[in-house]
Amino acid sequence: MRVVMFGYQTWGHRTLQALLDSEHDVVLVVTHPKSEHAYEKIWSDSVADLAEEHGVPVLIRDRPDDDELFERLKEADPDIIVANNWRTWIPPRIFGLPRRGTLNVHDSLLPKYAGFSPLIWALINGEPEVGVTAHMMNDELDAGDIVRQEAVPVGPTDTATDLFHKTVGLIAPVTIGALGLIASGQTEFTKQDRSQASFFHKRSIEDIRIDWTWPAEDLERLVRAQSEPYPSTYAFHKGKRLEILAAVVSQGRYGGTPGRIFYREGDGVVIVAGADARTGRNHGLAITRVRTEDGHEMAATEYFTSMGGYLTSRP
């Protein structure tokens, strides 16, 4: 089939590479300009560079809503558009243009975790598995019929980076497998159960600020979800920002006020956590590694030279 590819960052790069390695003919690529956004500088393999290396025409757009782009798409005469990690809305006149429609590839197990940063949100929420879904695009974001979907388990110590590497390897088989079904003439696919749908926003600085009223189990997953190269979770100690680089759920149960720097346990320093910490029934978050405001990274037991005081959400 004649394919136009819309994509960005490493997800788009892997999709384009899979298409170039397949029997399909990539006739045009549309991608976003480079960005300085913290999350868009991560996994930033260039779709444009890969296309140009293979002699495929490239258009750079923030949004696909101009007449010039529409005319170039018509000239390309695609059987299908394939999109992965396209960051803005694709209007109906674009996604409905190809003879076989538009296939969107999304790194979640739809209908859950539509929208942005699905791997990070899924890890924070304790999902047992994550995956990649190829679905037909319609008027509602990430809501079209599912053509192919594959899952991988989330391990007890997995970080968001681990999940990225697990799922990025699914892009090629999911995409090319879905295109095989479409090329064979199949048009009926699995409808999403919209009662199970969830839709998430982009991550921001507010989303990595630690709230000590969260249970320690949730905070431990948040720390793993915001592992390198993502911006680390943080709190404030004596008015200065302190990044939490690694932590585990404490063995013991600790009572008191959320955020209290309480007790050395093993290689960590336990912080009291949970909205009902006063009951003494909660585990704490045992911080094991931190980074100071001036960039020094050290063991938490080295940083916290004495117990007492609080880690706070704001200075």
Automatic annotation (TrEMBL):
<dbReference type="InterPro" id="IPR011034">
    <property type="entry name" value="Formyl_transferase-like_C_sf"/>
</dbReference>
<dbReference type="InterPro" id="IPR036477">
    <property type="entry name" value="Formyl_transf_N_sf"/>
</dbReference>
<dbReference type="InterPro" id="IPR002376">
    <property type="entry name" value="Formyl_transf_N"/>
</dbReference>
<dbReference type="InterPro" id="IPR005793">
    <property type="entry name" value="Formyl_trans_C"/>
</dbReference>
<feature type="domain" description="Formyl transferase C-terminal">
    <location>
        <begin position="206"/>
        <end position="306"/>
    </location>
</feature>
<protein>
    <submittedName>
        <fullName>Methionyl-tRNA formyltransferase</fullName>
        <ecNumber>2.1.2.9</ecNumber>
    </submittedName>
</protein>
<feature type="domain" description="Formyl transferase N-terminal">
    <location>
        <begin position="1"/>
        <end position="166"/>
    </location>
</feature>
<dbReference type="GO" id="GO:0004479">
    <property type="term" value="F:methionyl-tRNA formyltransferase activity"/>
</dbReference>
<dbReference type="Pfam" id="PF02911">
    <property type="entry name" value="Formyl_trans_C"/>
</dbReference>
<dbReference type="Pfam" id="PF00551">
    <property type="entry name" value="Formyl_trans_N"/>
</dbReference>
<keyword id="KW-0808">Transferase</keyword>
